[in-house]
Amino acid sequence: MLALVFDGDARMQDIPIPDRQPGEALIRVLSAGICNTDIEILRGYMEFNGIPGHEFVGIVEESDNKDLRGKRVVGEINCPCGRCRLCRLEMPHHCRERSVLGIHNRNGAFAEYLTLPDANLLVVPGSIPDDVAVFTEPTAAACRIPEQITISPEDRIIVLGDGKLGLLVAQVLWLHSKHLVCVGKHPEKAEILQKLRIATAHCGEPIEGGADIVVDATGSRDGLGCALQLVRPEGTVVLKTIVADTAALDLTVPVIDEVTILGSRCGPFRPALEALILGNVEVRPMITETFPLSEAPHALKRAADPDVLKVVLHM
Amino acid sequence: MLALVFDGDARMQDIPIPDRQPGEALIRVLSAGICNTDIEILRGYMEFNGIPGHEFVGIVEESDNKDLRGKRVVGEINCPCGRCRLCRLEMPHHCRERSVLGIHNRNGAFAEYLTLPDANLLVVPGSIPDDVAVFTEPTAAACRIPEQITISPEDRIIVLGDGKLGLLVAQVLWLHSKHLVCVGKHPEKAEILQKLRIATAHCGEPIEGGADIVVDATGSRDGLGCALQLVRPEGTVVLKTIVADTAALDLTVPVIDEVTILGSRCGPFRPALEALILGNVEVRPMITETFPLSEAPHALKRAADPDVLKVVLHM
Q1: Looking at residue A46, what DSSP letter applies?
Q2: CA-closest candidate to residue A205, choices A158, A168, A151, A239
Q3: Which residues of B touch A84 (CB under 8 A)?
Q4: What percent of chain B has pLDDT over 70?
Q5: Residues A246, B246: C-beta atoms closer than 8 Å
Q6: Model ipTM?
């Protein structure tokens, strides 16, 4: 099969179709989305070697579960051991022995085929196009926030960052409170939210602070410092940003103001898919460009361009 | 009256007894404790000029409230405006217009007299000696933690730091879970906890990580980084440390592990005084030395010594 393989350098290779392990399904990939994490992986993040890619929709070609065979699916990317203390504490996505699709110890979705445990798969209704279903994983990451904190309709929310994740977070949280503004740098990205009647601001403008919840989805090392200036005492800053380098941080104010800083990563697939089915989250305007799998190295370079939102590979 | 006045330099002065404002009481100070914040103030923290000191017990000499006159009291140090959004949201201790006894815009307790609003005062039962009552404020700071987070008897807790606050935090949280260890540098401080059957460890020893809750009461810029290494995924780090300088911090792990970092400051006086009344918190072994008010400048120097725990002034 054709696959993008990264071993310090990313290039297309013809490699064998993977063998599925017991309890796993073999999935023929239809579409795969490129995420910032993929770009970071190509910069050395997680020291991952293999096939990157973790946002996908595909067809189950082989599985011991007849309810899955031939079905179009999306898949939860964390593959936990199921036996350790964290798995028993119902935190399988934090299992220290886990593999993660295209991120850690498991080949990913920038290929014609991948394998994942049956238990990770969710069947996608026929009404949802591939280019929408492929957004389930990043939408789930946005849906993680209301799973972690209670959001009331009165809460003032500021989302920092108008990248792929920022736009999804803004849309998902807007379902919980309309007192939301997304702050970014790119008028053309802001426009996607404006069409949905979601307020936006340019990061050069003065922003009214004192927000109950501020989400850092900037992907920048300065994001947290900025968020801490905008949150109210006893408010919450949700950290969605992963950056490789360390940030110098003055923690006096968060202690005096008793701010909660909450890390947030992967999220629940079911409510994410539901939001896509109901049209509560609009994703197609976020696709800047599509490429065939054979052009994946070029597509990855394109996805790293600051003006670009989602780049999707079609297999 | 005699008072320690700080204006870049700390020295004893003879100044007029303060006038109480409407709704305030005039209090004759009996004892005052020296806190790390006082030491930081003398280093320029909060740019405070005036009389420092915020841990005290005293006698109400004047008040419009007859239930307070002549009574021995302790006092909540935050004096909010009562009118702003944060006061209306029941977060008066975060009021932006507040004065804070001996810390911000209000003369403090290293003097023969001080004034505080009647509403801030709590009468101390006769059974409690001055040298115990003077610990109400720092004990309240420790009691703030169970007010902010739910602690179950099964939770594994690590308290980092065996200073004044660390020892109080360890004692207060130990009431909530016995799976607690306090990590410090000083065997003689650890002994105070050991006598109460609270586990201790030396910070050179390897500490078992994966704790549900880690409290940083180190007062050191490295405390948070250390706490983040010891907390489990989806666990909580409580930040009690205020340091003037910024810390370089790798936030990748707290995001991936979805850790909550929670700032924690002043706390509730009533449960603190109750813990002292019931003997649930043992404070007298923490008094290293007492000085008369006239020797306050020397007492402050002594309190900054790493081997010293609480220094108390007697008026």
Answers
A1: G
A2: A158
A3: none
A4: 98
A5: no
A6: 0.92
Residue A247 has pLDDT above 90, yes or no: no
Burial of residue A70, with CB atoms counted within 10 A of its CB: 0-12 exposed, 13-18 middle, 19 or more buried: exposed
- Six-digit token pair at A189? 């990205």
What pLDDT, in 10s, does the model give residues A104-113?
A: 999 999 999 9
Q: Which residue of A has its CA nearest to B220?
A: A251
Closest partner CB to A263 (pick from B148, B240, B254): B254
pLDDT in tens, B137-157: 999 999 999 999 999 999 999
Residues A120, B80: Cα–Cα separation, whole Å: 52
DSSP secondary structure of B15-62:
-PPPPPPTTEEEEEEEEEEE-HHHHHHTTTGGG--B----EEEEEEEE
Q: In 3D, which of A109, A104, A106, A99 has the Cα closest to residue A34?
A: A109
Is there a contact between A144 and A266 (Cβ–Cβ < 8 Å)? yes
C-alpha to C-alpha distance for A161 and A149, rounded to whole angstroms: 20
Q: Is B150 helix (H, G, I), strand (E, B) or coil?
A: coil
Inter-chain CB pairs, A–B, below 8 Å: 106
Provide the token pair at A29: 């990939």
Instruction: Return the pLDDT at A245.
Output: 61
List the structure tokens of B72: 């021995």
Cα Rg of chain A (Å, integer): 19
Residue A219 pLDDT:
87
Does B278 contact chain A (CB < 8 Å)? no
Please give the pLDDT value at position B246: 65
How much is the pTM?
A: 0.93
Which of B36-45, B58-67, B246-255 is predicted most confidently?
B58-67
How far is residue A87 from each of residues A46, A96, B81, B210, measured CA to CA in Å?
Answer: 22, 9, 49, 14
- C-alpha distance from A165 to closest chain B C-alpha (Å): 15
Task: Calculate how close chain A gets to B168, using CA atoms only, in Å.
Answer: 18
Burial class (CB in 10 A: 0-12, 13-18, 19+), B207: middle
In this structure, what token pair is assigned to residue A94?
């934090």
Per the DSSP assignment, residues forming a β-bridge with A284 are none
More confident residue, B76 or B46: B76
Give Cβ neighbours of residue B150 (< 8 Å, ≥ 6 apart): none
- Does B234 touch chain A if contact means CB atoms closer than 8 Å? yes
